[in-house]
Amino acid sequence: MLVHLPIEATPSMLVGVRTYAWVGVDIFFVLSGFLIGTQLFKEVSRTGDVDLKSFYLRRAFRIFPAFFVVLGLYAIFPILRDAPTMQSIWSFATFTVNFDFDPRIGRAFTQAWSLCVEEHFYLVLPLLVLMLHRRISMRWTLVIAAAMVIAGMILRYTIWESQIGALVDADKLKDAFAVYLRDVYYPTYTRLDG
Known about the structure:
63% helix, mainly alpha, Acyltransferase_3, globular
């Protein structure tokens, strides 16, 4: 939450922590994945199946009402936005705003990128649980998890290195942070390890 506070509103003893506040999102993804994954594995262990309809309805009713109320208010009343410009409404409504989200174009409702990642995860996880339950050993599960963490780090590094090289050549280093957010920080495919 510290990153979203104005620097002057940050208590002095927490100013040093503010630099690392971005880790909170990663922790959220890991905890959310653990909690939802545990629920799904318990269900599949107990019943041998996952009630996909029930799972998706629970997720939708937990996220969609508040999300679409805020989105609607931002679309109808721009004065309520946390920033004057905003990405396209359809990209928010389809939970794809985190792909090619460029803060130089629109900054309102930037928090939605993490909801997009979460919704993509919820869309795929129950299907993976059904596919993998009782088909692979714990050892292979750990190997796959470790491979995903390492692959995630390599992917982010590779994307960043290729993008920063283009920026240096184009003498647009000031855009580096926006490119980092758009190409490395926001997309779902760079968050799979979390």
